[in-house]
Amino acid sequence: MKRLLIAALMISGSALSAQAADDCGKVTIADMNWNSATLIGNIDRFVLEYGFGCDAEMVPGDTMPTGASMTEKGEPDIAPEFWANSMREAVDKGVEEGRLAIAGKSLSDGGEEGFWVPDYMVEKDSSLATIEGIKANAELFEHPEDPEKSAFYGCPAGWNCQITSGNLFRALKLEDAGFEIVDPGSGAGLASSIAKAYERGEPWFGYYWAPTAILGKYKMTKVDFGSGVDEEHYKACTSQADCLEPKVTMYPPSPVRAVTTGEFAKAHPDIMDFLGKLSFKNSEMNELLAWMEDNQADGEFAAIYFLQNYEDMWSKWLPEDVAAKVKEAVAGM
């Protein structure tokens, strides 16, 4: 961590301005307020500074305000991890009108939601990878307050996923199998319930999402409902609080993309090519997020760690001459 701290100070200081070049100019990158996005944004910044000679700057961002600002004001230039489902119509319209451009999939698997069980349970009984196996073995999942019932850990109250997980709980008839929804109280409470079960080797069944540090630390299997994805029903009913007759469907993946302004895309086709190739699988990002949590590292530290330890991965995103400049900068950290 000492080495990373020194490296981060180097990035934040005058070394950056010395690398800037007139042919690229200033580039603004949204620093979204969750770990995977701030990691990717800081990777972008390092590569643009040292590889492409830009004067790159991180600016505060979040999905809705960043999308609106890029569409209406043309800034910031780059949103490194944009979850498109939250404002899909506005993004599609912005692309159609040339105000926005899609560079690529920053998370190739998309945002992933589902009902999960620990891997060690599936290793003992493969049927527990299916919802029918879960219901047939409901007695394994001991309720923390009522021994007569089985526990399904739901999404915290007030989160949108409380609606979807609750509707799927009904659609899957889990109550008939003896389950009751356990409200974990918060995101931290839900994460803690997984950690506690995993460290004790105990059964656990509930809702979670990826990429997250929890699924990087604790290997979990997503339960197969045997239904496939009915995206139309999911949008029209499963995700709605007033859904009266929810049907069984797996969660559709949420597209997660690198988005730029239209003007930036026109002016920098070489950088657009890089952003289009930069992509993480959820399993890869889960591991990086777990490292960030274990080391209390922010996006800046984590970007340096990634560039120092995953050269085989990121060097494929860049032309040889640009990759060589980044390698030289990383070697000097």
UniProtKB/TrEMBL annotation:
Which residues does the UniProt record annotate as the domain ABC-type glycine betaine transport system substrate-binding? 26-309
Q: What is this protein called?
A: Glycine betaine/proline transport system substrate-binding protein
Pfam families in the record: OpuAC
Q: Name one GO cellular component term.
A: ATP-binding cassette (ABC) transporter complex
Q: Which UniProt keywords apply?
A: Signal
Q: Where is the signal peptide?
A: 1-20
Asked whether the keyword Signal is assigned, the reply is yes
Q: Which GO terms describe its molecular function?
A: transmembrane transporter activity
Supply the SUPFAM superfamilies for this chain: Periplasmic binding protein-like II
